[in-house]
Specification:
Strand content: 5-15%
Shape: globular
Strand order of the largest sheet: 3-2-1-4-5-6
Number of helices: 9
CATH architecture of the largest domain: 3-Layer(aba) Sandwich
Order of helices and strands: EHHHHHEHEHEHEEH
Number of domains: 2
Helix content: 40-55%
Distance between the termini: 15 Å
Number of strands: 6
CATH topology of the largest domain: Rossmann fold
Radius of gyration: 17 Å
């Protein structure tokens, strides 16, 4: 039986990727580093500090700052990002997500958030979906970020379920790898190329169907 859904946030429930990009680009500019949208693809699905390290490497400044200074830079980026997300409303739920979440809730399927974003609870509140979820994994408590499986394993634990009773939903390659390593059925949202390792993939959240997701997961278990 499938008893739980474990969601990434950005690209699956809502899309704040543009806000992240603008905030990182602004910080990079202050450091005399130029990043573009193509480079920004590398930052999706990973933690704030990992993103900063990649940007510093990109600008040949990996050793230019102390750990304390890096924390300050990451905080500067996050402060700007938080200004952007103040504008988020329930209208920013991605297509089909409202229906998916409410259908799962009505069927008694547990739901947890497994996002690398420390702003997850605030965004969920602005989207008015926090009451639909049974748990949120705190990324600050994790030993390793995606593609390590810990975040999805913790999501299942929050629901009181085993990983094979859960389905993970992601839009980033690192996230799909994380779900797969956890031993969980993976659902990807994105291009066929990017989601090649997902057990089941759709190009848009509008194509997500709870019945289809569960059917595919059960078929996958039988084939294993």
């Amino acid at each position: 039986m499938i008893k739980g859904l474990i969601f990434d946030l950005d690209g699956v429930i809502t899309d704040t990727a543009e806000y992240h990009y603008l905030a990182w680009k602004s910080l990079a500019k202050k450091l005399d580093i130029n990043i573009d949208r193509e480079f920004n693809e590398q930052l999706k699905g990973i933690s704030r500090m990992e993103s900063l390290e990649l940007i510093l490497e990109h600008g040949n400044k990996a050793d230019a700052y102390t750990d304390e200074e890096k924390e300050e830079l990451a905080t500067l980026k996050n402060d700007e990002y938080k200004e952007y997300i103040k504008e988020i409303t329930p209208n920013d739920l991605l297509p089909g997500v409202h229906e998916l979440l409410h259908q799962a809730k009505e069927r008694g399927i547990g739901m947890a958030l497994a996002s690398a974003s420390k702003n997850g609870p605030e965004i969920m509140k602005r989207l008015e979906i926090e009451d639909l979820f049974d748990g949120v994994v705190d990324p600050a408590t994790l030993k390793a970020g995606k593609p390590d499986p810990e975040i999805f394993i913790r999501g299942a634990e929050l629901l009181g379920l085993s990983v094979d009773e859960c389905i993970g939903l992601e839009d980033a390659e690192a996230g799909i790898e994380s779900i797969n390593k956890a031993g969980m059925f993976s659902v990807g949202v994105g291009s066929k190329e990017a989601m090649a390792e997902a057990d089941y993939a759709v190009e848009s959240t509008a194509d997500l169907s709870l019945d289809t997701i569960i059917k595919k997961a059960l078929e996958g278990k039988k084939s294993n």
